[in-house]
Amino acid sequence: MELKREIRREPARPQAGTVLWLLGPTSAGKTTLATRVVADLRKKAIPAILFDGDEVRDFFGDGLGFGAESRLRVVSVLVHLANKAAEAGLNVVVAALTAGQDARAHVRANVKNLTIGYVSCSIQGCAQRDPKGLYQKAMRGEIDTLIGFNSAYQPPDDPDLVLDTEAHSLDALAARIVASYAQD
Ligand SMILES: Nc1ncnc2c1ncn2[C@@H]1O[C@H](COP(=O)(O)OP(=O)(O)O)[C@@H](O)[C@H]1O
Ligand SMILES: [Mg+2]
């Protein structure tokens, strides 16, 4: 076999990648914050990639539901993707509900260079934002699987960072996170 052209590669990057795992209830701001952090890191030429729980459901999750087993499966796929990308030197940001204790334990046990960020917002605040209309659906009884509404949301016991999106602006939170990479 003959290569038509050389595979171009960037100069070697000796640093291992990192994984920032953002967890929190629906509408707390995980996707918004993660998207912004990845964009800001790239502006500083820090290689970064986002993996979102909803993306895993959309692209890999035919038949994935909202029971404990499916939720753990989404987290397992994210853990795998995060590790693979970090191994290649990327700074990974994961945005995923990660509500179950088993899922959190799986993340802690299996992800290297891990920082867990708890994206916090009261359930009342989340329900007021509700960009995907899920709290409205739950209130109308159209879904019964919304954690925080149909069952209690348990905050994580041991997050490395707490990112309170009611107390702080998106700009302030993103700046604080991005600064922590720049110091590395
Ligand atoms: N400080 C903040 N940080 C992040 N999102 C915020 C903040 N304040 C308000 N929001 C809004 O909250 C909503 C969060 O939605 P989203 O990022 O989809 O949440 P999640 O991914 O956690 O379900 C967005 O509409 C966003 O604009
Ligand atoms: Mg999201």
TrEMBL record:
<keyword id="KW-0418">Kinase</keyword>
<feature type="domain" description="APS kinase">
    <location>
        <begin position="17"/>
        <end position="164"/>
    </location>
</feature>
<protein>
    <submittedName>
        <fullName>Adenylyl-sulfate kinase</fullName>
    </submittedName>
</protein>
<dbReference type="Pfam" id="PF01583">
    <property type="entry name" value="APS_kinase"/>
</dbReference>
<dbReference type="GO" id="GO:0016301">
    <property type="term" value="F:kinase activity"/>
</dbReference>
<keyword id="KW-0808">Transferase</keyword>
<dbReference type="InterPro" id="IPR027417">
    <property type="entry name" value="P-loop_NTPase"/>
</dbReference>
<dbReference type="InterPro" id="IPR050512">
    <property type="entry name" value="Sulf_AdTrans/APS_kinase"/>
</dbReference>
<dbReference type="GO" id="GO:0005737">
    <property type="term" value="C:cytoplasm"/>
</dbReference>
<dbReference type="GO" id="GO:0010134">
    <property type="term" value="P:sulfate assimilation via adenylyl sulfate reduction"/>
</dbReference>
<dbReference type="GO" id="GO:0004781">
    <property type="term" value="F:sulfate adenylyltransferase (ATP) activity"/>
</dbReference>
<dbReference type="InterPro" id="IPR059117">
    <property type="entry name" value="APS_kinase_dom"/>
</dbReference>
<dbReference type="GO" id="GO:0019379">
    <property type="term" value="P:sulfate assimilation, phosphoadenylyl sulfate reduction by phosphoadenylyl-sulfate reductase (thioredoxin)"/>
</dbReference>
